[in-house]
Amino acid sequence: MMWILAAAALLIVLCYSVVPSFSLRYLQTSKRKKAGRGKVLYLTFDDGPGGKDTEALLDLLDEYGINASFFTVAGFAEQYPELIVRMRGEGHLIGIHSVHHDNALFRGNKFTYSDLAESMFTLKKLGCDVAYYRPPWGHLNLFTLGWIRRLNLRLLFWDVMAHDWSDKETPDTICTKLMHRVFPGAVICLHDGRGEAGAPARTVEALRMAIPMLLEKGYRFKRVDDDE
Ligand SMILES: [Zn+2]
């Protein structure tokens, strides 16, 4: 009897969150691979703003004239409003990535709506025109799909990650992973906040190496909304 209940619970979680999350991410990547957009890459940063590390990242992007897309955590945006203003002023796209980085996997309708609406409200108060959403941990649930449509949000996952949040990685290993994993049209997901000890600083150092090499290979960088 117990195993039937356990199997039923697992099936519900799979249908409610895991399958929609992974299948939508897979479909987005397949679509981008087929789109043939040439040697374009989309740098995206989650989990910030992260104080000094985000400042260093913005300095680096400015050095190369690159516009990126930031999926900000609303709680951190309130903590560093000056960084949101700077991102906006320097031409970066600002999307939402929840209020406190909670996982939607086991959450219901009420939480799902308030997490999206409160994130939008916070960022709009800071002058941002919010149109894009990336779910924390890459997990959404069936209610998320309804709410993002009603709130006019576009869902954006990623194609390439480099485990830059992990303290097992170094700037060299992050850079090497990026160089091996990118493909024309890829959305790269890195992090300018949270992560294990010193994580965002390693990400900035990795990019300091990777950006010139990617430019050398003929890649250009765009915001995720540049081709829409
Ligand atoms: Zn995140």
From TrEMBL:
InterPro entries in UniProt: Glyco_hydro/deAcase_b/a-brl, NODB_dom, Polysacc_deacetylase_ArnD
Example GO biological process: carbohydrate metabolic process
Pfam families: Polysacc_deac_1 (PF01522)
Domain spans labelled NodB homology: 39-222
GO molecular function: hydrolase activity, acting on carbon-nitrogen (but not peptide) bonds
Source superkingdom: Bacteria
Cited PANTHER family: 4-DEOXY-4-FORMAMIDO-L-ARABINOSE-PHOSPHOUNDECAPRENOL DEFORMYLASE ARND-RELATED, GLYCOSYL TRANSFERASE-RELATED
Protein's recorded name: Polysaccharide deacetylase family protein
